[in-house]
Amino acid sequence: MLSLQDSVGKLKGVGPKMGENLASLDILTVEDLLTYFPSRYDEITPINLEDAKDKQRITVKGTVISEPMMSRFGYRRSRLSFRIMVGQGVAQVTFFNQPYLAKSVQINTDVTVMGTWDQSRNEIKGTKLLTSNPNEEKGMGAIYPANKHIKQATIRKLIRQAYDQYQRVIATLLPISLRQRYQLMERREMIKQLHFPDNREMAKLAQRTAAYEEFFLFQLRLQALRRAHRQENGIQILYDNEELREFIRTIPFELTSAQKRVVNEICRDLRRPYQMNRLLQGDVGSGKTIVAGIAIYAAISTGYQVAMMAPTEILAEQHAEKLARTFSGTHVNVALLTGSMKAKQHQELLNQIENGSVNLIIGTHALIQEKVDYANLGLAIIDEQHRFGVKQRQALREKGDHPDILAMTATPIPRTLAITAYGEMDVSIIDELPAGRQPIKTTWLREKQLDQAVNFLKGQLEQGAQAYIVSPLIEESESLDVQNATALAEQYQQRFAPHYQIGLLHGRMTNEEKSAVMQDFQDGKLQVLVSTTVIEVGVDNPNATVMMIYNADRFGLAQLHQLRGRVGRGSRQSYCLLVADPKTDEGTARMETMVATTDGFVVAQRDLELRGSGDVLGSRQSGVPEFKVGDPVADLKMLQIARSDAGNLLNEPGWDEKAENQPLVLYLKRHQLATHFD
Ligand code: ADP
Ligand code: MG
């Protein structure tokens, strides 16, 4: 029995070595191979010479009208040339270093030649020769993304073989009704037309089918997963409303209306008997921490423990400190668990976590280590969630019996996209900054204006403010980054001595060293903090009003926005100084965007436009999977439609028992999301 799940090893010519090479392209099964789609097509529909443009890649069909000439030079190089007549025109054809073609070219026979047209010499520099063999590809030639382990031609050959051998067992996954509504292809036809298209129209239709199929399956998986979660027993956090209100009244500021809205969304979830799975999205400085604080209070007031995971020790410490203050005088007792604790202290804390004598545990990924046993974890919070991998998030989730999950992120993805892309999560958005915040003034200076920037900085320090200076980013080398930051800190120390103290922060320092420096900066013992980008995430010092970034054009927009978000966190006017002489248009566009807006959603949109969605939503960055065919930004409408179609199907009683839907049911089972159906 053939199955698309067969290993590619079953194909002729695929041994262990080739298997490895294919694996480097994420191709393990026959299905992976058949859905390894071309990145583009070369037109191989023959054209007339009059229609050819200079330097264009063309295909012509014609009759050989001169004896082919072979010349060899040296050991390996050769040239084959002949003339062909195409319609009324005549052209010279030259093939370099493909001597074996000579035997296929004979005077007065028909050939098809692909190559590059050289107008002035009336010559086609050939790359490929097709003789009139009916089995040859026609219409368009698929070009695959290849790598150094595996060649185009090999991929093409294997796909041909796999298709010929397995086409009988390619079942259509999409329900008939949807396929008919959108006039999409059967899956077998789709796969055939993507790899060996009859013409451009068929390739287009196949691509549309594949994009829809991909979005639909993705949405179906996520929504089935979500339903499965809802059917399992989650934790019901039945906090006392009045008690929670009283706690909220102790917060020293008024919540923004956006904060109130998301607090309501979260609290409603906490009360429900199924597992909360919610993403809290809010721009830097929008006040996510206090929202989390309210959820924490609710959970702990009913006797549960809460774990809060942050990506760096600095951030974990800062949260612990702040929340300890927020919760002083309540029954919340805060513990900090990090990797750099002393063994004895560490063990003691582990015991307390296990016997439930601490109830809010804040830490880094130390929270998910095997030896950490929670007494009764009711709520797990993940700050800066895009900094964690799927596995780490899953590990935290598994530390309790279906604890409620609140993931937080400052990556401002446009609302529509967040809702569709995060599928299995509910999304809450804080789209408003606390009142009284003055927008950060952003200035772009050229390197020759550096003195101006430094003078400005000095003026701010004289008024009692603090400043960050971010040293140039050197992608390739952490040690150069460190050298740079160190030199810069020394330079500023000399310049500002003895009035101001300069601190230094970089990735090669130990966690204790980093924390000590951060603490001194927080306490005002240091006025300036020179840093590599380690400062980027989450750090909060309301007294800092200047963020100066060297070689700012080397940073991405998302990162610049994060860095800028380190200032403007108090009531004072804050400034961001970008020092840059951009070498590219994109670099210039980034500087202009930063000057033009402080709105994270606008920055994100611009980032999407400049870079394309793949990079912004790349799985590493945000946890959103990358799509092979569909583009969640360009094809957003289609993604939305697929989302509602998937939901509708799942709502249809008995859909999973209909014979025609069995391939889809099997597909879901294979993706281990079968709980819903068992
Ligand atoms: P982020 O969303 O980037 O994590 P934080 O939670 O660190 O932001 O909040 C930034 C700052 O704003 C903190 O100092 C916090 O105390 C303050 N803050 C939060 N909400 C409000 C509010 N409604 N009014 C005034 N200040 C607030
Ligand atoms: Mg934060």
TrEMBL record:
Residues 449-614 form the Helicase C-terminal domain. It catalyses: Couples ATP hydrolysis with the unwinding of duplex DNA by translocating in the 3'-5' direction; ATP + H2O = ADP + phosphate + H(+). It comes from the Bacteria. GO terms for biological process: DNA recombination; DNA repair. One of its GO terms (molecular function) is ATP hydrolysis activity. The keyword Secreted does not apply. InterPro entries: ATP-dep_DNA_helicase_RecG, DEAD/DEAH_box_helicase_dom, Helicase_ATP-bd, Helicase_C-like, NA-bd_OB-fold, P-loop_NTPase, RecG/Mfd, RecG_dom3_C. Pfam families: DEAD, Helicase_C, RecG_dom3_C, RecG_wedge. Residues 269-430 form the Helicase ATP-binding domain. Its EC number is 5.6.2.4. The keyword DNA repair applies. Keywords: ATP-binding, DNA damage, DNA recombination, DNA repair, DNA-binding, Helicase, Hydrolase, Isomerase, Nucleotide-binding. It is an enzyme of class 5 (isomerase). Belongs to the helicase family. RecG subfamily. Plays a critical role in recombination and DNA repair. Helps process Holliday junction intermediates to mature products by catalyzing branch migration. Has replication fork regression activity, unwinds stalled or blocked replication forks to make a HJ that can be resolved. Has a DNA unwinding activity characteristic of a DNA helicase with 3'-5' polarity. This is ATP-dependent DNA helicase RecG. It comes from Limosilactobacillus gastricus DSM 16045.
